[in-house]
Structure formats: structure tokens, C-alpha cells
Amino acid sequence: MSDFYQNGIITNFHNLTRRPVEELEADLVRFAKRRPMGLILPSLYSELEGPALANIVDELTRVPYLNEIVIGLDRADRDQFLRAREFFSKLPQHHRILWNDGPRLKALDAELEAEGISPQEPGKGRNVWYCAGYVQSSRRTEAVALHDCDIVTYDRGLLARLIYPVAHPQFNYEFCKGYYSRIADGKLNGRVARLMVTPMLRALKAIYGPLPFLDYLDSYRYPLSGEFSMRTDVLDGIRIPSDWGLEIGVLSEVHRNYSTKRLCQVDIADVYDHKHQPVSEGDATGGLNRMSLDIAKALYRKLATLGVQISAESFRTIKATYYRIALDLIETYDNDAIMNGLKLDRHSEEQAVELFASNIMEAGKAFLEYPRDKPFIPSWNRVQAAFPDVLERMHEAVELDNQGKV
């Protein structure tokens, strides 16, 4: 980003000088003496065979300040886990793989499920939740970053900029969100953020007034980014959503627990591209279709906890207001794309808006019909109250998987 404007109510760190990554890393090496740092990588096994993860691992081998890397591995059988151990073995940092489908962690999960405090469905939320528990059990870090494993434009400067605000000993930030422009192959991407989240937040503000929470969310330049960092103690008390509302849910949780003066965002990449989700118009269980449903439900649930009265009639008003704002934004994005020599398919953009508008209603219907829905995985504070030795047992299970026979 070329501007230096502090918009919204959270601190914004810009990339004003394109400071060399070597300088950032030299600072972080110094910071690490007082505040050890780690990284969480939630991964599907299939990503080991994709175009992005091998490069990410190669870049991470050159990172000098990390004290620990925790890899959450989903959808892997025994042979695939052994292959993953070999794949990540080149990392010079202390690293551990959570074999989430292995017998040891599945047995632990079964105990938690019997008490009703385990994740209800597989996915990134569950993966991140278990990684967060392991980070607390290992006690090797005081600041931790998280990013996806499908970033095809990855370089280690992304991680350095992402973790810097929470690693600096003289900064008081507890949580940092990464942002970037979604441009690839001459096209403007990021449809759910541009065409769903931003116009929906502005519709909600128009209807319910300038609620501090809505102003807060609207301050994030890319609220759906999968990259964030935090002080490790933040992991104790947040409840992680198990569905596609993960990013919005995490932002909601840190807003609930901390002053906005302790939250920030940072420009982490000039170019960013990763695996694109299909729209899946005819399948509400996948792609951008499912994502938009879960995000809308996450927003409704949060508004309800703030005392906002939401009825069936409300959703028609939200949909109509959203639709008008979103169509106006398409015009804006189209003009911006043209000026920058980028492509934007207005027809597909309007089709996406129509789907998202429909899902605003569908999410509202689900919100009203299933009031006992539990979208959040319990915090690790609660889990430890039920199972005081759970972190020690998880740590032992992971150690046995990584160092012993499986």
C-alpha cells in the first residue's frame, strides 16, 4: 500500500519503504531473545503435493528467529504421516506435526467429545484449535503467527512483517491481522471480502447504526485473510469457530477480550495468491456458497450477543440494503480495475452478489431455526477445567508420533 493513512479504530502498519527482509529479520532475532516466536501451519495432506507448500518450507528454512513450528496435518493415513515427517524434516527449527487422524490424537479427541467439548466438525477451525492447544503445551513461544499452506506467492518477508508487531518488546499489541491486495493473473480477486463482507457490514451499519463492533470490523482492510499473529497467551481464552466463519470469529473474540488499542493490522505482501475456492452456486456445502453462509451466520450471532434484536423481517431489510451497496461497489471495483489495467468480469461479479444476497436470507433462516447451534469450539481454559492434564497428554502424544513408531 502506498498511503500512510490510519483509517478506522485499529493501528495500521504500512509497507512504506519496502524495508529489506534481512533488516526485519535482524530485528526479530534480537526480539526473540526476550520474546520467543513460533509459527502454526494448518495443512491438509494434499497440500504436500501441491505447488505452494514445498516453496513455503524452503523459505522457512532460511528464517533465523523462530523457536518452534507446529504443523497441523489433516486427512493423512499412517504412510502419509510418515511421508509428512520426511517432507518437513528439512526445517532446521524445532518442529512438530500434529497427526490429527492418528490413533493417539483421535483417542484424546474421543474423550473430549464424550464431555461435549471437542470440535464438532473437521476443517481448518478444528486444525487450528488443536495446534493452539499444542503451542500452549510446549511453552516454547511467547508470540505466534499463523498462515495458510497454499500461498503460491509466498516469501519469508510475509512472515517477518506478520509477526513483527506482536514480537517487538516495546509494542503493546496482542493481536495482528495481515492484509494485502488480492490480484493474480491480471484479475481482481477476493470476491467474498469485496462483494460480501464489506457491503454487508455497511448495510448493517446503515440499519443498526454505528455500533462499535461494526466500525471495528470495517476497519480491517482484508478481514478474511488467513494470516494473523498474536501473543501466545491470547490462545488461552479465545473460542475458535469450527466453520468458514473462522476469520470473522477470531476477530470477534479478540475484540471481546482486548482493547482496540492492542489490536492492529499489517501490510504483508505486494502480491498474494493462493488456492481459489469455486463459487459452487448449486452446492451450499462448499466453496464461496458455504463460506458466505457461515460468515453471515457469524455476524448475526455476534450482533445478537450485543443485544441487537434480529427478526425474520430484519433479514429482508438487510438483504435489500446489502444488494444496493454491493452493486454500487461493483461499479467502483470495475473502475479501479480499468485504471490499473486489470480485468474484472462484471457479469460474474453480479452473479456472486445475487448468490450472497440469497445467502443473507438463508443464513438468517438458519440463525432463527437453530438457536441452540454451538458454532464455537470451547476455549482451552474451559477444556483444562474439565481435563486438567489435557495439555500434558497432548504434548506426550505428539512427541510419540513425531519421534517414535506409529
From TrEMBL:
This is Glucosyl-3-phosphoglycerate synthase. InterPro entries: Nucleotide-diphossugar_trans. It comes from Modicisalibacter xianhensis.
